[in-house]
User: Which sequence fits this backbone?
């Protein structure tokens, strides 16, 4: 499959869009780390925020202070959540179990 030919304006617009998304995600990670926002709020409030819906669950959980790669992998395995799953892609039961587990950990 060949790459589509894009004009310079289209490339510039894509770069601007990508920068904006990276800024939003960086702010989200900072807010979670600083305690201004909880992962549970992201998991329940994603329908109103498109950027939250596109975030990978693994990335979101690793943003929580005290949750490293090992704890995140263990939790996701326990809840049967695929490593590539995004917040929007979680099932109803997976989301509920994840929120309950995070509340039990006081996160």
Assistant:
């Amino acid at each position: 499959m060949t790459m589509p030919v894009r004009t310079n304006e289209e490339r510039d617009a894509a770069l601007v869009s990508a920068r904006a998304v990276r800024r939003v995600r960086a702010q989200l990670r900072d807010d979670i780390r600083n305690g201004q926002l909880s992962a549970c709020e992201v998991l329940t409030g994603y329908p109103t925020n498109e950027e939250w819906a596109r975030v990978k669950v693994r990335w979101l959980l690793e943003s929580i202070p005290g949750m490293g790669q090992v704890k995140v992998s263990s939790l996701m395995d326990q809840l049967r959540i695929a490593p590539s799953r995004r917040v929007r892609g979680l099932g109803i039961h997976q989301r509920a179990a994840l929120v309950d587990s995070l509340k039990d950990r006081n996160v």
Observations:
- Residues 8-34 form the longest helix (27 residues).
